[in-house]
Amino acid sequence: MRGTYLGELEELVLLSVAALVDSAYAVAVRAEIEGRANRKVNISAIHASLYRLEDKGFLDSHMGEATNKRGGKSKRIFTVTTYGYKTLKEAQTVRQSFWGSIPQLSAQK
Amino acid sequence: MRGTYLGELEELVLLSVAALVDSAYAVAVRAEIEGRANRKVNISAIHASLYRLEDKGFLDSHMGEATNKRGGKSKRIFTVTTYGYKTLKEAQTVRQSFWGSIPQLSAQK
DNA sequence: GATTTTATTTACAAAAGTGTTGATAAAAAC
DNA sequence: GTTTTTATCAACACTTTTGTAAATAAAATC
Prior knowledge:
Chain A is mostly helical. Chain A has one domain: Orthogonal Bundle (Arc Repressor Mutant, subunit A). Helices cover about 55% and strands about 10% of the residues of chain A. Chain A has 5 helices and 2 strands; from the N terminus they run αααββαα. In chain A, strands 1-2 form a two-stranded antiparallel ribbon. Chain A is elongated and about 55 Å long. The mean pLDDT of chain A is about 90. The interface of A and B includes residues 7, 11, 16, 19 and 102 of A. The structure holds a DNA duplex.
C-alpha cells in the first residue's frame, strides 16, 4: 500500500537521476525534467522530492566536490538504488502490459 | 500543474478502461488491475477513481443494459475520451524518452 | 570584506489522490 | 415477497504528494 508508489513528479525525478548517471543533483534534475516533459518545476519541489525518494530507499546521495566556478559550492549527488531501479522498471513493465492489449488504431479516433 | 496529472491508481484505471474497450465497468476494471499489477484494490476506490477521471474529462460513461444473470443489474460503462487517450500516451512518451537515455546495462548491478 | 551566484536544507502550507463506510438499487432465485 | 447477488453512488476521512518561503552556506568576483 502506501509508501512504495511513485508520484508523477517523483517518477520523473527518479528517471532523471537515472539518466544523469553520476551528475544528478537538484538543478540538473530540474533542467532534465523541464527539457523532456514540457513543464516548469520549482527547485524546492525538486529537493523535497529527492529527499523523499531517498527516505523511501529509491535514491542514495553523497556530497560532491566544489567546482572553481563562481557560486560553485559542492552539490549533493544522487544515484538510483537497486530497489529504486527495480521499482521504476516494474511500473513501466506493468504499463507496457496494458498498452500491449489496447487496440491503439481504433482508439486514436 | 494541478489537475491534468494522473495518480498512480488513476493511470492504471485509465489503462484498464482502454484495454477493456466497451466492457469497462468498475468490477471489470478492478479485476484487470488486480490481474496485471499485483495489487488489491477496494471496489469503492475504483469507483471514486473512475468518477474523478470522468470529472477531469479523461473518461465518458453511460449506463449499459441489465443482463439476465442473478444480480445482473445494469452497469455503468466507461470509455476513454480522445483527451484521456492523448494524456495517457503523452505520459508514456515522456517516460520512454527518459528510458532511452538510461544506461540500463550498468544500472542493473 | 562586501557582493553576487549557486546551492542546500528545513519547516510549513496547500492540493490532490486514495480508501472506507454506509446507503441504495435492481436483478434472479427461492 | 424475502433473500442473495451484483452493482452504483455519495460523503467523508486519511494519507501522500507537491509547492512555497525563509534561512543558511560556500564559492568566485569585485
